[in-house]
């Protein structure tokens, strides 16, 4: 009888341990994002030092600021995803790649994936205003200027955007 109880406890403990480890692994695989603005707060104005592309029509649209740098491999690997989102949502969301930590020459010489959405150079103060402490980082602002997402752009999904547009759009 004692053996059955001990064996049952051992199996239960092992099962609990394996479950906890798999849960921790899943949490560790999620994107980590540092800084940004608190969701539900008013966003500061967007101040472009220089538009590297045509200035997008932002009137009445959500704005997705994708903060990045030319030496940031995770930022660059996210461009195809953001390009796809831009193609799907360009009528509702103005996607803008925002860089500041390089010289304009470095940004113009960037030889990575094509950025199909708008792009700006910003003064370092803007990154401070948006509390950007690490990249990649995306902030999505609704048409009323309220932050609705602050995190890694890799985590933005169609479902998330559709829900946001339905809830906070016009």
With helices defined by DSSP (H or I, 4 residues minimum), what is the helix count?
6
**Contiguous uncertain segments of 5+ residues:** 10-14, 16-33
Whole-angstrom Rg = 21 Å
Portion in beta strands: 15-25%
Protein model, in words:
The structure is a single chain. This protein is an alpha/beta fold and 170 residues long. It contains six helices and six strands; from the N terminus they run αββααβαβαββα. It has a six-stranded mixed β-sheet, covered by helices on one side. It starts with a helix and ends with a helix.
Strands, helices and their partners?
Layout: H1 2-29, E1 50-51, E2 62-67, H2 73-77, H3 79-89, E3 93-99, H4 104-108, E4 118-121, H5 124-129, E5 137-141, E6 147-151, H6 158-168
Parallel strand pairs: 2-3, 3-4
Antiparallel strand pairs: 1-4, 2-5, 5-6
Short description, anyone?
The protein is an alpha/beta fold and 170 residues long. The chain is 39% helix and 17% strand.
Main features:
six-stranded mixed sheet; 6 helices; alpha/beta; 39% helix; 170 residues
């Amino acid at each position: 009888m004692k053996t059955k109880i001990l064996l049952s406890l051992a199996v239960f403990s092992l099962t609990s341990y394996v479950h906890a480890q798999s849960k921790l692994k899943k949490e560790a695989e999620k994107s980590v994002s540092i800084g940004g603005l608190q969701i539900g707060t008013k966003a500061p104005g967007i101040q472009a030092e220089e538009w590297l592309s045509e200035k997008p029509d932002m009137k009445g649209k959500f704005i997705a600021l994708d903060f990045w740098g030319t030496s940031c491999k995770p930022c660059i690997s996210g461009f195809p995803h953001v390009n796809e989102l831009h193609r799907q949502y360009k009528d509702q969301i103005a996607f803008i790649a925002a860089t500041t930590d390089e010289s304009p020459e470095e940004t113009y010489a960037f030889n990575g994936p094509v950025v199909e959405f708008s792009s700006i150079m910003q003064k370092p103060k803007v990154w401070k205003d948006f509390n950007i402490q690490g990249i990649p980082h995306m902030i999505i602002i609704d048409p009323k200027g309220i932050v609705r997402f602050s995190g890694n752009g890799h985590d933005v999904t169609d479902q998330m955007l559709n829900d946001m547009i339905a809830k906070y759009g016009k």
